[in-house]
Protein backbone atom coordinates (compact mmCIF):
# COMPACT_ATOMS: atom_id res chain seq x y z
CA UNK A 1 0.00 0.00 0.00
CA UNK A 2 1.00 3.63 -0.23
CA UNK A 3 2.03 5.78 2.72
CA UNK A 4 4.39 8.59 3.62
CA UNK A 5 7.26 8.63 6.13
CA UNK A 6 8.17 11.95 7.73
CA UNK A 7 11.56 11.83 9.45
CA UNK A 8 14.37 9.71 8.05
CA UNK A 9 16.71 9.32 11.00
CA UNK A 10 17.99 6.01 12.34
CA UNK A 11 14.47 4.70 12.92
CA UNK A 12 12.51 6.37 10.13
CA UNK A 13 15.10 5.61 7.48
CA UNK A 14 15.37 1.93 8.40
CA UNK A 15 11.61 1.57 8.70
CA UNK A 16 11.21 3.07 5.23
CA UNK A 17 13.70 0.58 3.84
CA UNK A 18 11.84 -2.33 5.44
CA UNK A 19 8.53 -1.05 4.05
CA UNK A 20 9.97 -0.75 0.54
CA UNK A 21 11.39 -4.27 0.75
CA UNK A 22 7.92 -5.38 1.85
CA UNK A 23 6.37 -4.03 -1.34
CA UNK A 24 4.91 -0.74 -0.09
CA UNK A 25 5.11 2.54 -1.97
CA UNK A 26 6.64 5.17 0.34
CA UNK A 27 6.71 8.94 -0.12
CA UNK A 28 9.35 10.50 2.13
CA UNK A 29 10.30 13.86 3.60
CA UNK A 30 13.02 15.03 5.98
CA UNK A 31 14.46 18.45 6.76
CA UNK A 32 17.74 17.08 5.45
CA UNK A 33 17.75 16.89 1.63
CA UNK A 34 20.65 14.42 1.87
CA UNK A 35 18.50 12.04 3.93
CA UNK A 36 15.72 12.27 1.34
CA UNK A 37 18.17 11.60 -1.48
CA UNK A 38 19.63 8.58 0.32
CA UNK A 39 16.24 6.94 0.95
CA UNK A 40 15.01 7.84 -2.53
CA UNK A 41 17.93 5.80 -3.79
CA UNK A 42 16.33 2.79 -2.13
CA UNK A 43 13.11 3.25 -4.09
CA UNK A 44 11.17 5.84 -2.11
CA UNK A 45 9.59 8.93 -3.67
CA UNK A 46 11.41 11.98 -2.35
CA UNK A 47 9.77 15.34 -1.66
CA UNK A 48 10.86 18.80 -0.55
CA UNK A 49 7.92 19.73 1.72
CA UNK A 50 4.98 18.34 3.66
CA UNK A 51 2.63 19.91 1.13
CA UNK A 52 4.36 17.95 -1.63
CA UNK A 53 4.08 14.78 0.45
CA UNK A 54 0.31 15.18 0.73
CA UNK A 55 -0.01 16.00 -2.97
CA UNK A 56 1.68 12.74 -3.96
CA UNK A 57 -0.55 10.52 -1.82
CA UNK A 58 -3.78 8.89 -2.94
CA UNK A 59 -6.83 9.11 -0.64
CA UNK A 60 -7.21 8.08 2.07
CA UNK A 61 -3.74 9.40 2.75
CA UNK A 62 -1.64 7.70 5.43
CA UNK A 63 1.28 9.67 6.86
CA UNK A 64 3.70 8.14 9.39
CA UNK A 65 5.49 10.73 11.56
CA UNK A 66 8.86 9.63 12.98
CA UNK A 67 10.39 12.76 14.50
CA UNK A 68 11.52 13.63 18.06
CA UNK A 69 8.78 13.89 20.67
CA UNK A 70 7.45 17.19 21.96
CA UNK A 71 7.52 20.33 19.83
CA UNK A 72 8.91 18.69 16.64
CA UNK A 73 6.01 16.22 16.68
CA UNK A 74 3.48 18.93 17.53
CA UNK A 75 4.71 21.18 14.73
CA UNK A 76 4.75 18.38 12.17
CA UNK A 77 1.27 17.14 13.03
CA UNK A 78 -0.10 20.69 13.09
CA UNK A 79 1.37 21.38 9.66
CA UNK A 80 0.03 18.12 8.25
CA UNK A 81 -3.39 18.86 9.72
CA UNK A 82 -3.54 21.94 7.52
CA UNK A 83 -3.03 19.85 4.36
CA UNK A 84 -4.87 16.60 5.06
CA UNK A 85 -8.60 16.03 4.70
CA UNK A 86 -11.38 14.10 6.38
CA UNK A 87 -10.67 10.37 6.33
CA UNK A 88 -6.89 10.76 6.09
CA UNK A 89 -4.64 9.17 8.74
CA UNK A 90 -1.63 10.36 10.74
CA UNK A 91 0.47 7.74 12.57
CA UNK A 92 2.85 8.91 15.29
CA UNK A 93 5.52 6.25 15.72
CA UNK A 94 7.76 8.26 18.04
CA UNK A 95 7.99 8.18 21.82
CA UNK A 96 5.29 10.72 22.59
CA UNK A 97 3.72 11.21 26.00
CA UNK A 98 0.31 9.54 25.90
CA UNK A 99 -1.33 12.68 27.29
CA UNK A 100 -0.04 14.60 24.26
CA UNK A 101 -1.24 11.81 21.99
CA UNK A 102 -4.78 11.96 23.37
CA UNK A 103 -4.78 15.75 22.96
CA UNK A 104 -3.56 15.53 19.38
CA UNK A 105 -6.08 12.82 18.62
CA UNK A 106 -8.95 14.96 19.84
CA UNK A 107 -7.76 17.97 17.83
CA UNK A 108 -7.46 15.92 14.64
CA UNK A 109 -10.79 14.17 15.22
CA UNK A 110 -12.47 17.58 15.11
CA UNK A 111 -11.22 17.83 11.51
CA UNK A 112 -12.21 14.27 10.67
CA UNK A 113 -8.58 13.14 10.51
CA UNK A 114 -7.77 9.78 12.11
CA UNK A 115 -4.85 9.59 14.54
CA UNK A 116 -2.89 6.43 15.32
CA UNK A 117 -0.18 6.07 17.95
CA UNK A 118 2.27 3.27 17.22
CA UNK A 119 4.69 2.64 20.07
CA UNK A 120 7.71 1.26 18.21
CA UNK A 121 10.48 -0.84 19.75
CA UNK A 122 13.41 -2.43 17.97
CA UNK A 123 16.05 0.25 17.62
CA UNK A 124 18.67 -0.01 14.91
CA UNK A 125 18.13 -3.78 14.72
CA UNK A 126 14.55 -3.34 13.54
CA UNK A 127 15.47 -3.23 9.86
CA UNK A 128 16.68 -6.83 10.02
CA UNK A 129 14.72 -8.29 12.94
CA UNK A 130 11.50 -6.28 12.71
CA UNK A 131 9.85 -3.75 15.02
CA UNK A 132 7.48 -4.48 17.89
CA UNK A 133 4.44 -2.29 17.27
CA UNK A 134 2.03 -1.32 20.08
CA UNK A 135 -0.87 0.36 18.31
CA UNK A 136 -3.57 2.69 19.60
CA UNK A 137 -6.36 3.44 17.11
CA UNK A 138 -10.01 2.93 16.28
CA UNK A 139 -10.87 -0.54 15.01
CA UNK A 140 -11.50 0.68 11.47
CA UNK A 141 -8.32 2.72 11.24
CA UNK A 142 -6.23 -0.12 12.65
CA UNK A 143 -7.65 -2.44 10.00
CA UNK A 144 -6.81 0.10 7.30
CA UNK A 145 -3.21 0.45 8.46
CA UNK A 146 -2.62 -3.17 9.49
CA UNK A 147 -0.63 -4.10 6.34
CA UNK A 148 1.95 -1.50 7.39
CA UNK A 149 2.35 -2.96 10.88
CA UNK A 150 2.48 -6.48 9.50
CA UNK A 151 5.43 -5.55 7.27
CA UNK A 152 7.31 -3.65 9.95
CA UNK A 153 6.90 -6.29 12.66
CA UNK A 154 8.30 -9.80 13.03
CA UNK A 155 5.71 -12.62 13.23
CA UNK A 156 3.21 -11.86 16.03
CA UNK A 157 5.10 -8.61 16.64
CA UNK A 158 2.25 -6.11 16.51
CA UNK A 159 -1.03 -5.68 18.36
CA UNK A 160 -3.98 -3.31 18.57
CA UNK A 161 -3.84 -2.50 22.28
CA UNK A 162 -6.66 0.04 22.54
CA UNK A 163 -7.93 3.44 21.33
CA UNK A 164 -5.79 6.45 20.52
CA UNK A 165 -3.27 6.97 23.32
CA UNK A 166 -3.09 3.32 24.37
CA UNK A 167 -0.17 2.55 22.08
CA UNK A 168 2.06 5.21 23.57
CA UNK A 169 0.88 4.31 27.07
CA UNK A 170 1.97 0.70 26.61
CA UNK A 171 5.26 1.83 25.03
CA UNK A 172 5.88 4.17 27.97
CA UNK A 173 5.63 1.32 30.47
CA UNK A 174 7.66 -0.91 28.13
CA UNK A 175 10.48 1.61 28.31
CA UNK A 176 10.09 1.95 32.07
CA UNK A 177 10.65 -1.81 32.36
CA UNK A 178 13.65 -1.44 30.07
CA UNK A 179 15.16 1.10 32.50
CA UNK A 180 14.93 -1.44 35.33
CA UNK A 181 16.38 -4.28 33.26
CA UNK A 182 19.30 -2.18 32.08
CA UNK A 183 20.07 -1.08 35.64
CA UNK A 184 20.03 -4.68 36.91
CA UNK A 185 22.47 -5.79 34.22
CA UNK A 186 24.64 -2.73 34.90
CA UNK A 187 24.87 -3.45 38.62
CA UNK A 188 25.56 -7.15 38.15
CA UNK A 189 28.33 -6.62 35.63
CA UNK A 190 29.86 -3.86 37.75
CA UNK A 191 30.09 -6.26 40.71
CA UNK A 192 31.80 -8.85 38.50
CA UNK A 193 34.14 -6.23 37.04
CA UNK A 194 35.05 -4.92 40.52
CA UNK A 195 35.85 -8.31 42.06
CA UNK A 196 39.03 -8.27 44.13
CA UNK A 197 39.19 -12.07 44.23
CA UNK A 198 38.89 -12.89 40.54
CA UNK A 199 39.80 -11.41 37.18
CA UNK A 200 36.60 -12.22 35.33
CA UNK A 201 36.06 -12.25 31.58
CA UNK A 202 32.77 -10.40 31.10
CA UNK A 203 32.56 -11.32 27.41
CA UNK A 204 32.75 -15.03 28.31
CA UNK A 205 30.29 -14.71 31.21
CA UNK A 206 27.71 -12.70 29.27
CA UNK A 207 27.90 -15.18 26.38
CA UNK A 208 27.51 -18.05 28.87
CA UNK A 209 24.44 -16.48 30.45
CA UNK A 210 22.71 -16.45 27.08
CA UNK A 211 22.75 -20.27 26.99
CA UNK A 212 19.80 -21.48 29.04
CA UNK A 213 20.21 -19.05 31.94
CA UNK A 214 17.16 -17.43 33.51
CA UNK A 215 18.76 -14.02 32.90
CA UNK A 216 19.29 -14.61 29.18
CA UNK A 217 17.75 -11.93 26.96
CA UNK A 218 18.32 -9.86 23.86
CA UNK A 219 19.75 -7.12 26.07
CA UNK A 220 22.27 -9.57 27.46
CA UNK A 221 23.15 -10.67 23.92
CA UNK A 222 23.95 -7.04 23.21
CA UNK A 223 26.02 -6.90 26.41
CA UNK A 224 28.01 -9.88 25.17
CA UNK A 225 28.68 -8.07 21.89
CA UNK A 226 29.80 -4.92 23.70
CA UNK A 227 32.13 -6.82 26.05
CA UNK A 228 33.56 -8.81 23.15
CA UNK A 229 34.67 -5.51 21.60
CA UNK A 230 35.95 -3.95 24.83
CA UNK A 231 35.75 -5.95 28.06
CA UNK A 232 36.47 -2.90 30.23
CA UNK A 233 34.42 -0.40 28.17
CA UNK A 234 37.36 1.99 28.40
CA UNK A 235 36.21 4.01 25.40
CA UNK A 236 32.83 4.84 26.92
CA UNK A 237 31.86 7.56 29.36
CA UNK A 238 29.32 6.54 31.98
CA UNK A 239 26.83 9.24 31.03
CA UNK A 240 23.32 7.87 30.49
CA UNK A 241 20.59 9.95 28.84
CA UNK A 242 16.87 9.37 29.04
CA UNK A 243 14.30 10.25 26.40
CA UNK A 244 11.43 10.79 28.83
CA UNK A 245 9.51 7.53 29.01
CA UNK A 246 11.07 6.47 32.31
CA UNK A 247 10.07 9.76 33.91
CA UNK A 248 6.54 9.43 32.54
CA UNK A 249 6.26 5.86 33.82
CA UNK A 250 7.34 6.91 37.31
CA UNK A 251 4.86 9.81 37.28
CA UNK A 252 2.06 7.49 36.17
CA UNK A 253 2.95 5.06 38.95
CA UNK A 254 2.73 7.92 41.46
CA UNK A 255 -0.60 9.08 40.01
CA UNK A 256 -1.98 5.53 40.25
CA UNK A 257 -0.51 4.85 43.72
CA UNK A 258 1.40 1.91 42.27
CA UNK A 259 4.78 1.22 43.94
CA UNK A 260 7.50 1.05 41.30
CA UNK A 261 10.78 1.28 43.24
CA UNK A 262 12.98 -0.50 40.70
CA UNK A 263 11.95 1.68 37.76
CA UNK A 264 12.12 4.81 39.92
CA UNK A 265 15.62 4.08 41.21
CA UNK A 266 16.84 3.14 37.73
CA UNK A 267 15.70 6.58 36.54
CA UNK A 268 17.48 8.29 39.45
CA UNK A 269 20.68 6.39 38.68
CA UNK A 270 20.59 7.82 35.17
CA UNK A 271 20.47 11.30 36.68
CA UNK A 272 23.42 10.39 38.94
CA UNK A 273 25.43 9.28 35.90
CA UNK A 274 25.42 12.85 34.60
CA UNK A 275 27.19 14.26 37.66
CA UNK A 276 30.95 14.23 37.43
CA UNK A 277 31.13 14.79 41.18
CA UNK A 278 27.93 14.68 43.21
CA UNK A 279 27.42 17.53 45.68
CA UNK A 280 25.10 15.25 47.61
CA UNK A 281 27.92 12.71 48.03
CA UNK A 282 30.13 15.52 49.30
CA UNK A 283 27.50 16.38 51.92
CA UNK A 284 27.36 12.76 53.09
CA UNK A 285 31.17 12.57 53.28
CA UNK A 286 31.28 15.81 55.27
CA UNK A 287 28.59 14.64 57.71
CA UNK A 288 30.29 11.25 58.26
CA UNK A 289 33.50 13.12 59.02
CA UNK A 290 31.68 15.44 61.42
CA UNK A 291 29.78 12.85 63.47
CA UNK A 292 32.20 9.93 63.31
CA UNK A 293 35.55 11.29 62.30
CA UNK A 294 35.47 9.13 59.19
CA UNK A 295 38.21 9.79 56.68
CA UNK A 296 37.42 11.99 53.69
CA UNK A 297 39.18 12.48 50.39
CA UNK A 298 40.14 15.96 49.25
CA UNK A 299 40.46 17.33 45.75
Produce a short descriptive summary.
By secondary structure, the protein is α/β, with parallel strands linked by helices. The chain has helices at residues 10-21, 33-40, 50-55, 71-81, 98-109, 126-129, 139-152, 166-194, 202-209, 218-229, 245-255, 261-272, 279-292, and strands spanning 2-6, 25-29, 45-46, 62-65, 89-92, 114-121, 132-136, 158-162.
User: Quick one: overall form?
Assistant: elongated
Strand content: 5-15%
The low-confidence parts are none
The strands making up the biggest β-sheet line up spatially as 3-2-1-4-5-6-7-8
The DSSP helix count reads: 13
Give the N-terminus to C-terminus distance in angstroms: 63 Å
Mean of residue pLDDT values: 95
Structural class: alpha/beta
* Main sheet specs: 8 strands, mixed
- Number of separate strands: 8
Q: Order of helices and strands, N to C?
A: EHEHEHEHEHEHEHEHHHHHH
Helix content: 40-55%
Measured on Cα atoms, how large is the radius of gyration? 23 Å
Q: What would you say this structure looks like, in words?
A:
Strands 3-2-1-4-5-6-7-8 form an 8-stranded mixed beta sheet, sandwiched between helices. β7 (132-136), α7 (139-152) and β8 (158-162) form a beta-alpha-beta unit. The chain is built from 13 helices and 8 strands. The mean pLDDT is 95. The N and C termini lie far apart (63 Å). The longest helix is centred in the middle third of the chain and has 29 residues, at 166-194. It has 299 residues and is an alpha/beta fold. Helices cover 51% and strands 13% of the residues.
